Amino acid sequence: MNYGEGLGYWYLRLNGFFPLTNFVLHKASEVKYSSDCDIIAIRTPHVKEKIGGMLIDRDKELEPPLDFSRTVGLICEVKTGDFEVAKVLDSEKVNAAVDRLGFVEDSTEARDLLRTQKYCLLGNQYQIAKLFIADRRLHIDRPFLFLPLEHIQEFIKHRFEQYEEKFRDRVYFNSELIQYLTWEAELKRRRPT
What we know:
- The chain is of the alpha/beta class.
- The protein has one domain.
- Helices cover 33% and strands 24% of the residues.
- The protein contains six helices and eight strands, in the order αβββββααβββααα.
- It has helices at residues 3-14, 91-101, 108-114, 149-162, 165-168, 176-190; strands at residues 18-25, 35-43, 50-51, 54-55, 71-79, 119-122, 126-134, 145-148.
- The radius of gyration is 17 Å and the shape is globular.
- It starts with a helix and ends with a helix.
């Protein structure tokens, strides 16, 4: 993972998702070229995690539009350089990811809805959404949710500054980037105000 994908992964993890990175899309009749989907993530409706005796809060930017009373599947693309907005979360990636999530046996309805919408609801149980993370802001409405990488970095830093336990447990995170951000938050906490 590059640093953008790493930050996206940990942002979703800290918001109660179980993320899978670099999901390979194999060349097939509906997929022209082998490629990957940066992150696919699932969040179940009753996620709870206590840190320092407090239930963690999630980022207010996610709810709404995400409905955490349902199982949420998230298809995420991350860009840290140039990109063409028209190619972000193209149908091939989205279709393969919808099938991989496996929420419904026949994914035709979800695939059709996600061609033009940011998310779709599948019955009363599931929601699938598309999320794009980039290092520059978008000033146009597109058929996907959008978060700037800067927002994600600030969320992670704030979380680590808020919970001292994160510093003590930093060695259990298998990411040097997150260990570093945790150490940086501890330095900030130690500085006299």
